[in-house]
Give the backbone structure.
Amino acid sequence: MKRVIIDTDGGVDDALALLFALASPELQIEAVTTVSGNVPVDQATRNVLFLLDLVGPARRPVVARGAERPLGSRQVGATHVHGDDGLGNLGRLMDADGSPRYPARELLPNLADAAGLMVEMLNSYPGELTIISIGPLTNLALAMRADGGGLRKAAGIIVMGGAIRVPGNVTPGAEFNIFGDPVAAEEVFAATLPLTLVPLDVTEQVSLVRAEVEWLSRRIGGRIGTFLADATSDVMGYTEETRGLPELFLHDPLAVGVALDPTIVGVERLHVDVDTAGGIADGMTIADVRPIKAEHRQPANMEVALQVDAGRFRALFTDRLCRMSL
């Protein structure tokens, strides 16, 4: 089993990534850490606790609360996509008897600090832990500031973020997770870490249309199947309005898929920087993909996924979620 820490900002595709990881016996989730991004960090933490209660894993991972704000000055959010709660506005749903289908969790327990927990675990299990980052990179940058060598003890760091040869999804040039804290991303990218970037180039090739989500929800059944249908409905409504097709992009689940099976993607070693100047390109990931010999480019600082076996990934994702019905 591969030991992992999942760092999440509490949106719908984050929830699907966590369900995917919990349904995969190859992964041992040691901790789930939260960060402000799609929703504020407290809501992201509530969402993680809700999902763990929903699934009831035999071995419950540690949950730690992370950064409230990015290292930069701009605070972003995506409630217009993911709902005010980050999970499709579940609070509006009622059962036939008039009771809330998803009762609110008002109080949070006293939780560890995310960056501190990362450092502690990486020092306790050097070379054994893989970090799957599916939100802004604030917690990773704070962990690096606290212990410069700690993150280098990771077996790997898989980052869902960036856009290399495709447009951004929050500005013409920037992808949401990097745009959410470009200062943190710049620090992490410059730190000589075992990074694999999973950008929009590949995540926008893996999606499910509404009919497929409805089939998957029925196939899983029970509380998890109902949650899948309820949580994804508004997101697909958003993509239908903005793109013309009710589609669910599996951005964050693909990062989990790369942890499960790195051969699902084809990677290139590249040098990637982040624009932090605050102008029109703020948060843009800039890769040295010049058509010259590799030795004449800037030295590579990460592996970047630029191809994906979309059919094989979709089959793996749906197979694992269907196991939750057993």
In short: The mean pLDDT is 95. Residues 13 and 62 are 21 Å apart (CA to CA).
